[in-house]
Amino acid sequence: MSAESKNVSGQAYSLTVMAPISPGRSSELAAHLDDLGSGDDSPLAKVPSTHFARWVVLDALIYEGGRQRHDSWSGPRLLFTSNFDGPLDAYLEGLRTGLGAAGDAIWEHCTDYPGHRDAGAFNRWMRARQLTSSLFFAAYGDQTVQQVLDNLRVRQWLTELALKGQALDDAELQDRFLREYPR
Amino acid sequence: MGNVDGRATAITVLTPVWPGATLWLKLLFFLGRHLEFTLEKLVTLSFIHYARWTIVTRFPDGGRGERLRYSYLFFESNFNGTWEEYIDAFSEVVPWRMRAIWFTSFGFPGPLPVGPFKDYIRKNEFVANHYWSAYPDAATTEVLSAARLATAAAGLRATAEAMTPQEFRAAYDRMLTSVQHDL
Prior knowledge:
The structure holds 2 protein chains of 2 kinds.
Chain A: H1 3-6, E1 8-9, E2 12-20, H2 26-34, E3 50-58, E4 77-85, H3 88-99, H4 101-107, H5 119-127, E5 130-131, E6 135-138, H6 145-165, H7 170-180
Antiparallel strand pairs in A: 1-2, 2-4, 2-5, 3-4
Helix pairs in contact in A: 3-5
Chain B: E1 4-5, E2 8-16, H1 21-34, H2 37-45, E3 48-56, E4 72-80, H3 83-93, H4 95-102, H5 114-124, E5 130-133, H6 140-160, H7 165-178
Antiparallel strand pairs in B: 1-2, 2-4, 3-4
Helix pairs in contact in B: 6-7
């Protein structure tokens, strides 16, 4: 099994990017991420084919005590993970263009970030900081975001029709089904 | 900031691994990728959208990566419901699988009793600075049932125009009966 295939379940892809944050900038970055809008106002809403995604500032390694010795690293990391409709290169391009300047405002806090204007450099920067999943679970890895949204719309419509349908005669029911079918 | 978007909740955990235990984890995740039954129990948990484990032997830095004293186990999950419910279910439904994975991490108290286990997760968890879902109000079970409903509705839609109203009513009732648990 190739490293790339470990990131995949069905058509779903698990992306894990961990980038060193420039010295002294992790608090500022965390505050910026904390202030991003939610829902449709999130910059991630503009990135096609994303099911779930997150940014997390990993500010310090955990020390459990006991027999564990203190570990140290060169500095905090910015974690970005996404569960999306593959393949990776198409997604990274959607990430680059969808986030645009909003992506720069985040990753510019990280070392050597090239900005979003150079597609090749952006792709290489992401890939050079990518971790391969060891085990990826997707409950519905065969479904794209668009399919999930379409199916949920059909479900809501059919549930409403099932309630109203009892009061309709056969011809009205057929007419409404054909007219209102969501896709 | 936070681990919640609508009904979706994020969990992000990074734990230091005992020296030498990465070999066991690699074997375990190899089996997980190749033996379906290892992930089947996660399907029965039915509220996990996506989850992943990653063994981090080198922290990405754009080059060969930074090697620390220990390797780390990264885990993320995207689920519907509360954090408490999630940890409860994990520890009760898949305790042996959890033990097999996390006994490799320093300080892991075991999945049961659940109190110390929750304390352990809290200590090793990073709160997301930004979390986003494309369908934040849909539970995993709703996504799966919507797919079954949409398939059934599409089947009826394909033949509905050629039916008499009476035939349509009969076919519609059969379709609803077949998917009544998904409405």
